[in-house]
């Protein structure tokens, strides 16, 4: 379709935003807009400068016959600080305290706009790594995993506590829950992950890290590779952490039922960007 330059710029920007981490040949845009390759290159240069200036991400160019352009989503440090600060503030609301010292976070995980922002944070943190699939366990973290996967343009696989007929044959392992020290089981369909795939684990909450350790074990059963670990909230006071290398957005310091008080601080996002 033949467009004026303003319309072409808008459509080109939208296309890149909707196809992150996908290598797109310049010839595709030449045919799409019926424009010269030099014009498309000029448009991309303007969009690239704008994206980098406002922290939307990067546009990289891959030379050669099989090359093209690729958009890598990102986020500015200022915006990341704002999102994490807002998350911490929400988590510290005393009304979230449930009997037994648990926290109510369903409203956070169920907020599409907020979850999309959190997904951008993790996608930006791991943008420099090769990731083929996002893995999570069948808990409240599923929406977050899908948000991260959308920004990375990769599929999601969900580890469950038991196998399902609709998923065909599965691989099952036993693991030790870090918090309760109980032996538990997790299963994943054999078709979920290809051998040699690079897997990013996303979880909503980590205490000792037993569940994540189990997912790491099941990744090895598929002869796949661990590409990184992202955690929405980590518990601070843990005697023995089973996982060391991870990126967290918030750190839960204390839940005091008697004083009706919750203490939350930013996680290690700015100390370890997954690079």
UniProtKB/TrEMBL annotation:
The keyword Transcription regulation applies. The keyword Transcription regulation applies. It holds the Pfam family Pribosyltran. Keywords: DNA-binding, Transcription, Transcription regulation. Residues 4-73 form the Bacterial purine repressor N-terminal domain. Residues 111-244 form the Phosphoribosyltransferase domain. InterPro entries: PRTase-like, PRTase_dom, Pur/Pyrimidine_PRTase, PuR_N, PurR_Bsub, WH-like_DNA-bd_sf, WH_DNA-bd_sf. Homodimer. Belongs to the purine/pyrimidine phosphoribosyltransferase family. PurR subfamily. This is Pur operon repressor. It comes from Fictibacillus iocasae.
């Amino acid at each position: 379709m033949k467009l004026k330059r303003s319309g072409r710029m808008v459509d080109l920007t939208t296309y890149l935003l909707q196809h992150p981490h996908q290598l797109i040949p310049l010839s595709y845009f030449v045919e799409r807009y019926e424009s010269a390759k030099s014009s498309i290159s000029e448009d991309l240069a303007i969009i690239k400068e704008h994206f980098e200036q406002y922290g939307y991400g990067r546009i990289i160019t891959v030379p050669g016959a099989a090359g093209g352009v690729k958009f890598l989503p990102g986020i500015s440090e200022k915006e990341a600080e704002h999102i994490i600060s807002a998350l911490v503030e929400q988590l510290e609301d005393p009304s979230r305290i449930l009997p037994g010292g648990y926290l109510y976070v369903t409203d956070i995980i169920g907020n599409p706009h907020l979850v999309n922002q959190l997904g951008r944070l993790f996608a930006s943190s791991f943008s420099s790594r090769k990731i083929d699939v996002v893995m999570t366990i069948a808990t409240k973290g599923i929406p977050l995993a899908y948000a991260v996967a959308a920004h990375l343009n990769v599929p999601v696989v969900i580890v469950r506590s038991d196998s399902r007929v609709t998923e065909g044959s599965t691989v099952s392992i036993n693991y030790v829950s870090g918090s309760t020290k109980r032996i538990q089981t997790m299963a994943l369909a054999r078709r979920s992950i290809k051998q040699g795939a690079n897997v990013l684990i996303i979880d909503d909450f980590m205490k000792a890290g037993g569940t994540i350790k189990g997912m790491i074990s099941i990744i090895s059963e598929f002869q796949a590779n661990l590409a990184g670990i992202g955690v929405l909230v980590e518990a601070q006071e843990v005697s023995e952490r089973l996982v060391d290398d991870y990126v967290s957005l918030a750190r839960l310091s204390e839940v005091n039922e008697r004083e009706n008080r919750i203490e939350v601080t930013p996680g290690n996002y700015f100390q370890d960007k997954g690079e």
